[in-house]
Write a structure and sequence with these properties.
The structure holds two protein chains of two kinds. By secondary structure, chain A is mainly beta. Chain A has strands at about 5, 10-15, 20-25, 30-35, 45-50, 55, 65-70, 75-80, 90-95, 105, 110-115. Chain B is about 0% helix and about 50% strand. Classes of the chains: A mainly beta, B mainly beta.
């Protein structure tokens, strides 16, 4: 296991198309987080999971966004009817709760460009 | 509302000079605060957490609840410290909850 992985690393799509991103967390980690980062900003929280349960969604997560973690392992983030404002870096992170560590391990991100 | 403020977008210092990256937070409770770092072409990674009180790569950060600050300091900057630094606040009280990040400060260490 070499850490959190994300695919694809880059995605260019036309406005109105749907896109799906995948995140594979560190294998024993039960919590998985999605963040979005735009130019000049820090990462902003979108949603997170404990195993397969989605615990919280940010107000940033409009109805066009949906995230799943069906078996408590990998997660997908889908954006429907993309808009130019969706262009950003989408980051995934994972952590293991109950250890007192609190460290979140980040993936390399998926850069989305909506033309 | 929970908020993290990093007032400097860019900080340039000479090698060997002291460094202080500022971070102020807004949180109604006992905060869990972190510094994350992103080196060029690398992923975001944890630098240090306030509760551990460790010195990592020569950096320290002290939580000042009176001033609601968590400034990152290093007495002698090195060229390899050049990176993007983010201060972050854990949003929930139970641990392993989402982070609220500041906008980040780019540190440039000049040889």
């Amino acid at each position: 296991d070499t850490g959190v992985s994300q695919n694809p690393r880059h995605k260019i799509t036309k406005r109105g198309q749907n896109v799906t991103f995948r995140c594979d967390p560190i294998s024993e980690h039960n919590r998985l987080y999605w963040y979005r980062q735009t130019l000049g900003q820090g990462p902003e929280f979108l949603t997170y999971f404990q195993n397969e349960a989605q615990l919280e969604k940010s107000r940033l997560l409009s109805d066009r966004f949906s995230a799943e973690r069906p078996k408590g392992s990998f997660s997908t983030l889908e954006i429907q009817r993309t808009e130019q404002g969706d262009s950003a870096m989408y980051l995934c992170a994972s952590s293991l709760s109950g250890t007192g560590s609190y460290e979140q391990y980040f993936g390399p991100g998926t850069r989305l460009t909506v033309t | 509302a929970q908020r993290v403020t990093q007032p400097e977008k860019l900080l340039s210092v000479f090698k060997g000079a002291p460094v202080e990256l500022k971070c102020n937070y807004s949180y109604s409770g006992s905060p869990e605060l972190f510094w994350y770092v992103q080196y060029s072409r690398q992923r975001l990674q944890l630098l240090l957490r306030h509760i551990s009180r460790e010195s990592i790569k020569g950096f320290t950060a002290d939580l000042n609840k009176g001033e609601t600050s968590f400034h990152l300091k290093k007495p002698f900057a090195q060229e390899e410290d050049s990176a993007m630094y983010y201060c972050a606040l854990m949003s929930g009280r139970s641990g392993n909850t989402p982070l609220v990040f500041g906008k980040g400060t780019r540190l440039s260490v000049i040889a």
